[in-house]
Amino acid sequence: MNSTANSDNGRRNENCDAGDGQDLILHFLDKVRLSRGDAMEESEGEESPTELNTINSAGGFLIVSPDKLSVKYTNTNLHGHDVGVVQANKPAPFKCLTYYFEIFVKDAGVKGQIAIGFTKESFKMRRQPGWEVNSCGYHGDDGYLYRGKGIGEAFGPTYTTGDTVGGGINYGSQEFFFTKNGALVGKIPKDIKGHLFPTVAVHSQNEEVSVNFGKTKFAFDVKGYEASERNKQQMAIDKISIPPNIGYALVKAYLLHYGYEETLNAFNVATETTVPPIHIAQENAIDEDDSSYALHQRKTIRQLVRDGEINAALARLREWYPQIVQEEKSVVCFLLHCQKFIELVRVGKLEEGVKYGRLELAKFVGLTGFQDIVEDCFALLVYRKPEESSLGYFLEDSQRELVADAVNAAILSTNPSKKDEQRSSHLHSHLEVLLRQLTVCCLERRSLNGNQGETFRLHHVLNNNSTRR
Amino acid sequence: MATSKKVITRDEWEKKLNAVKLRKEDMNTLVMNFLVTEGFVEAADKFQRESGTKPEIDLATITDRMAVKKAVQNGNVEDAIEKVNDLNPEILDTNPELFFHLQQQRLIELIRQGKTEEALEFAQEELAPRGEENVNLLDISHRLKTASEVNAAILTSQSHEKDPKLPSLLKMLIWAQNQLDEKAVYPHINDLSTGQLENPSE
């Protein structure tokens, strides 16, 4: 489908400038595209290191095994510039909470000058990780941690033949951490930006280590570590106090906003009859007045749209809110006509659909902002089973809900008591405003961390029951 | 502080807010989760019909759960224990502390009704071996505490989280703002109940 071509379509443009409120309701066209799956999950599948990079290693001093998972120092070391360094074939993935890998010291060789750490792609391959800026390494012979400061700092125990040592990055806390034989040794702040390569170094004769990029089970319980990190964060979050019963107030406002009148009534009855009754803060009484505007009308029309009774919905709108449907090229009219067309396709009345499309949808062809959606709608006709096609989302319940939401927003915008500067609140329920703020805060923080770490997605939070017990 | 924070203007921030892709279904799911977890069975049922959102758990189990909760709230502890056992006998077996609290509540109700002899007998037989100190046992709020404890235990037994996600997300909003404060200056929402975006105060 034409999924990439129209990313800018929902922005304001003169062709569908149908007056008051239209600007705001345009955003529902973007929502249609959102269901199409445009702009969805920007490639979550990141590549991970799988083996050692044999091309970029310090040739002459070391030999990488044929399986590219172990490395041996074959020379006799003379000075500090003949370290045998080897990086992983790919940088550590960063759209996750942690990255981790391990080495096993097969032989500590003559001096045991083994190091594990992280380096940038441009790292000088004849220096120990940590000796140069923008690198860090945990060294086996002294147990020191080096991070480009010229001198090392006491960090943990030394390690030698038979030890398993791990290096990891915690993107959430922006720290490196190291482990020895399955136990956490310590962590230090990560002040290096950009891609980092897992790196191993050997520096004296017969030193030999093998690397585990996760193909076999780690000695360290990374999942457990992640869980405890998440738990720490969750505990910090749990400690925050919020106004009592704010959840009730938000749910109530949400039901009001979208015109879920029956749910609202049941909710009101229930909160009043519990022992003790739940007191919902009323400080924003004006706001509530506002969102109860036309509640019953909004509910009625929503129900009609949800039942696929588009003609009836249009008739009600003409009767109750003629100003909304007056402009026949408005977003609301467009969405309703699309929906009518979709309903005809749903019940297999294709001929009638074509007729209806020619009559009501053809006028949107060529109008930027509508074009791609019109085309996708018409494309429904070519499938024997449209519900199984890539356009199946049109036939889903969520599409009806979306159209109902657009109509709801349009009706709310006719509220005469609403001041201009408050107009945007027709679109977003109170709850949505808060969720947007939450999402942007998380995204922004992540972007200031070089886009490292997990992204916040409401969808994931809702579908993940296992994080807390 | 020497490190300069990134300054994000209201305009830029609002653009970011508008660019967020939020699905209506997800918000509906969040609201449904609240109704279900808090036990608003009628509202959950209507909401399913009005919004097409599927509840994550059989609504019938809410009715049972709420009946137990209500029984405790009204002081009918025996009745509550029976109902819990009907629902799933393992709940009390695996939660000895909860069972103790329910028994304790039962004693409190006997005392409240002035059935001192019965209370004494009951205490000696059922509670003495476990003995636990507590103040304000006679307060009505103790019923609510016990009721919400049973409620949580039943939810857990149904492999459902015991708290709704909504309050936790609100806390997360405050937390996320605090975290971002360390690195940036941007418009805040300080009052959750109004959702008003406030300009950064410098």
TrEMBL record, chain A:
Entry's InterPro entries? B30.2/SPRY, B30.2/SPRY_sf, ConA-like_dom_sf, CRA_dom, CTLH/CRA, CTLH_C, Gid1/RanBPM/SPLA_SPRY, LisH
Instruction: State a single Pfam family of this protein.
Output: CTLH
Domain CTLH as annotated: residue spans: 294-352
Name the SUPFAM superfamilies on file: Concanavalin A-like lectins/glucanases (SSF49899)
The organism's superkingdom is given as Eukaryota
Q: Where does the record place the B30.2/SPRY domain?
A: 30-218
- Which PROSITE patterns does this UniProt record tie to the protein? B302_SPRY (PS50188), CTLH (PS50897), LISH (PS50896)
Q: Which PANTHER family match?
A: RAN BINDING PROTEIN 9-RELATED
Q: What is the official name of this protein in its record?
A: B30.2/SPRY domain-containing protein
Name the species this protein comes from: Brassica cretica (Mustard)
From TrEMBL, chain B:
Q: Which SMART domains match?
A: CRA (SM00757), CTLH (SM00668), LisH (SM00667)
Please indicate which superkingdom the organism of origin belongs to: Eukaryota
- Entry-linked InterPro entries: CRA_dom, CTLH/CRA, CTLH_C, LisH, Ubq-SigPath_Reg
CTLH domain mapped to chain residues: 61-118
Q: One Pfam family this chain carries?
A: CTLH
**Under which name does UniProt file this protein?**
CTLH domain-containing protein
